[in-house]
Amino acid sequence: MKVQNAFENSYVSSLSSVTGRSQSLARYYHLYGDASMINKFPEIYRSISREEIREIAEKHLNTNQRLIMEYLPETNKE
Predict the structure, then answer these.
(1) Residues 6 or more apart from 21 whose CB is under 8 A from it?
(2) For 4, 33, 38, 54, which has the most beta carbons within 10 A of its beta carbon?
(3) What's the whole-model pTM score?
(4) pLDDT of amino acid 64
């Protein structure tokens, strides 16, 4: 799966620096109370199937429940 490989590559790359590792450790400790999640996260991610993603998308990405915004820059008042 292309997306899965791209994610894993990005994840591993983010851990290649001291800053990246420290940010990940802090994130997992803060979110899950367990810094060792840094080692478990890729396995958890790989365990998610396409069908599960499709089900969640159908449940939460409903076209009747969306907001469309248009951003218009301020006009110059001079």
Answers:
(1) 15, 38
(2) 38
(3) 0.60
(4) 81
